[in-house]
Every structure is written in C-alpha cells, then in structure tokens.
Design goal:
Length: about 170
C-alpha cells in the first residue's frame, strides 16, 4: 500500500517521536510505501529514516519553496509547483492517509483530505495517530460538529483515531 503521512517538520521531544518511530517501523516491516512531504526536517526526517531502515519504500512529494530540505535517499522524489499541487499529489498517490502529531501545515493537510472525503471526492481511510492526547482538542471540536449537525455523514466514517502505531496502521490497512 501507499500510505501518505502528514506530520510536523519540527524536531520533537521523545514522548512524541517514540510512538511515531514505532508506527514508521511497522509501516516499513509490512512492506508499504511511505508517501510524504519529502523533507528531512524534524519529524518528517525521523519517519523517513525509520521506514527506510525497516525496508519500506520512500516516495517524497516536495515543493520548490521547501526544496532546500529535500530528503536524500528516497526511492522517488516528485517536485510540485506549489503547495496546492503538492497536497493534491499527496492525496492522489495515497491508498490511506495517516496523520501524526504536527502543527499548522499538518492541520491544513488533514483538514483538506477530510473535507474532500466529506464531499465524496475520495473514500480513502484517514487515521489520526493521537498520542499524548495531542489531538484531544480536535476530537472535541469534530464531535461537536457531528452532534450539532455540521457534518453530512458520521464522523467515524470520515476519520479514525488511534492511540498507538499498530492500531493506526491496522486502520489504514482496513
Ligand atoms: C521546519 C523547516 C522547514 C520545513 N520544511 C518542510 N519541508 C517539507 N514539507 C513541509 C515543510 N514544512 C511543512 N511541510 C508540510 O507541512 C507539514 C508539516 O507542517 P507543520 O506545520 O510542521 O505541521 C508536513 O506534512 C509537510 O507536508 C525549517 O527548517
């Protein structure tokens, strides 16, 4: 499977990187391909290193604006013209999407893939690996949207939550 991963471009504390490394190792051991932003920055580089070490394939989708941080050693590196095209390619190349801890860039990416799924433009699994309660605020907001009639279909059809790497991968593979 091609598994697109969105995650932070910053170097993070071990309490965040440990479960991410577990997930990335499993992704590689299961013979999947990591599709990601193609950067060596922070957690993005950690994920790529771990998948590669576990025998997985790497497909980066980068953009000129951020090319100074391009990961060296990917099996394939796609360069896109702008961030919008990059998000489209990251989704088009995915069989499933897994979202790790991240900041505004990650939030932008997950919001877009869930919004497109809401409109029926794809039906790929979208899974958030929610460790350290990082996505608790987002979960509460999404649950309120569902409870108060802001979503056209059940929330659990749009996005799944996992609290460890093995569960996140199982949901992506389902
Ligand atoms: C941190 C620095 C440069 C970041 N370089 C990036 N390279 C590739 N992709 C990136 C970069 N920064 C953001 N992205 C995309 O957004 C997501 C991460 O953003 P967040 O705000 O950290 O959550 C990630 O999934 C990428 O697709 C300076 O050295």
């Amino acid at each position: 499977m091609n598994i697109t991963v969105f995650c932070s471009a910053f170097a993070l504390d071990e309490r965040y990187t440990k479960p991410v490394r577990e997930f990335a190792r499993l992704l590689g051991e299961h013979g999947h391909t990591l599709v990601w932003g193609g950067s060596n920055a922070g957690l993005m580089g950690v994920v790529a290193d771990e998948v590669k070490a576990a025998g997985g394939r790497l497909v980066g989708v980068n953009v000129g604006l951020l090319s100074h941080k391009t990961y060296q050693g990917a099996d394939e590196m796609v360069m896109t013209a702008d961030l919008a095209e990059r998000k489209a390619v990251l989704l088009a190349r995915a069989d499933a999407i897994v979202v790790l801890v991240g900041g505004l860039g990650t939030l932008d990416e997950v919001t877009e893939v869930v919004e497109l799924k809401k409109h029926g433009l794809h039906d790929k699994p979208v899974v958030l690996l929610d460790t350290e309660g990082f996505y608790e605020g987002l979960r509460i907001q999404l649950a309120r949207m569902e409870a108060e009639g802001f979503l056209p279909r059940p929330l659990n059809e749009l996005v799944g939550f996992a609290s460890d790497g093995a569960t996140a991968l199982a949901l992506a593979e389902a």
